[in-house]
């Protein structure tokens, strides 16, 4: 029984070595497959090959076909930089604008963001309801004066 235990222990060690060796070989193969190919060639054959990006091996999508390139002269000029970001903007000065009377707006005399001063005409309210109320008050006044 001791001999069986010894044999199984030895076969386990050899299996571990074999599995470790296979894992190491797989790692080396993957490194070779994904490592960029060198562009420096030695010998006469290197002069005949077109220039590549250095990744002509499978898995990199590289090819041995020359890529057309256009050349342009550099010019000096302004290059605007825009940042897109989220944030909150708060005004330094704020004001609440209220009307003295209520009604429908007929016309607006300002644009949003425009600077206005105190006393400037900002909007025109529909005068019809106020004209009717004025005529009724004038009629009541005339009736009361006639009764005196």
TrEMBL record:
Listed InterPro entries: MdtA-like_BSH
Residue intervals of the Multidrug resistance protein MdtA-like barrel-sandwich hybrid domain: 93-132
Database matches in Pfam families: BSH_RND
GO CC entries: efflux pump complex
Record GO terms (molecular function): efflux transmembrane transporter activity
Protein family: Belongs to the membrane fusion protein (MFP) (TC 8.A.1) family.
Protein known as: Secretion protein HlyD
Species for this entry: Pseudomonas syringae pv. japonica str. M301072
């Amino acid at each position: 029984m001791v001999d069986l235990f010894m044999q199984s222990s030895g076969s386990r060690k050899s299996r571990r070595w074999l599995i470790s060796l296979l894992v190491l070989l797989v790692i080396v193969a993957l490194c070779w497959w994904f490592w960029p190919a060198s562009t420096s060639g030695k010998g006469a054959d290197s002069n005949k090959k077109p220039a590549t990006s250095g990744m002509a091996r499978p898995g990199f999508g590289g090819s041995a076909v020359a890529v057309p390139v256009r050349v342009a002269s550099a010019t000096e000029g302004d290059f605007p930089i825009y940042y897109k970001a989220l944030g909150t903007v708060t005004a330094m000065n704020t004001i609440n604008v209220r009307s003295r009377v209520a009604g429908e707006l007929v016309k607006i005399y300002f644009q949003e963001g425009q600077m206005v001063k105190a006393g400037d005409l900002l909007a025109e309210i529909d005068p019809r309801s106020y004209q009717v109320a004025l005529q009724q008050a004038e009629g009541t006044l005339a009736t009361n004066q006639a009764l005196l």
